[in-house]
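By convention, the token line describes the chain's fold. To illustrate:
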Amino acid sequence: MRIYSYEELVDEAEDDRNTRLVIAALAGAANSISAANAGYVNTTGSYSAYGPYGGSSYGTYSATTYDPYRAQLAQQSAANQTSANIAAIEADGERSLQALSNTIIKDHTILPGEWYGGSVVLATPPKSDSGAAEYRIGVQVGGEAYTFKVAQAKIEK
């Protein structure tokens, strides 16, 4: 079974953050383009008129106008949303990296009288067709051997 190093977990967290940032930037560009079109206002309607001598006319009309203030507001809103999304992704990425730094056991020499705690991340073991797996993890600490038995089972919903 594979044990992931701290550096591999950091690389994975950074790759995830960078992917999310690229997607947020692309979404921001699409929102900005859409916002630029928000200034266009289409107006349609129909009319009918009756003249003083019994004549009448009727018809339809349509017009497109551009309101730069409306477009500017929409673009500013899109830019603010993109900035907020990017800031949230950055903050989430920093929290992930900090959590890794605080919890994952790193290459560290333990000096006499020191203790060290943390997590070890293991690759998911292969499962049988039934979705069940059982494996043992052996750890030696201070000349004593400890064995942890882990059983996985498929949960039926």
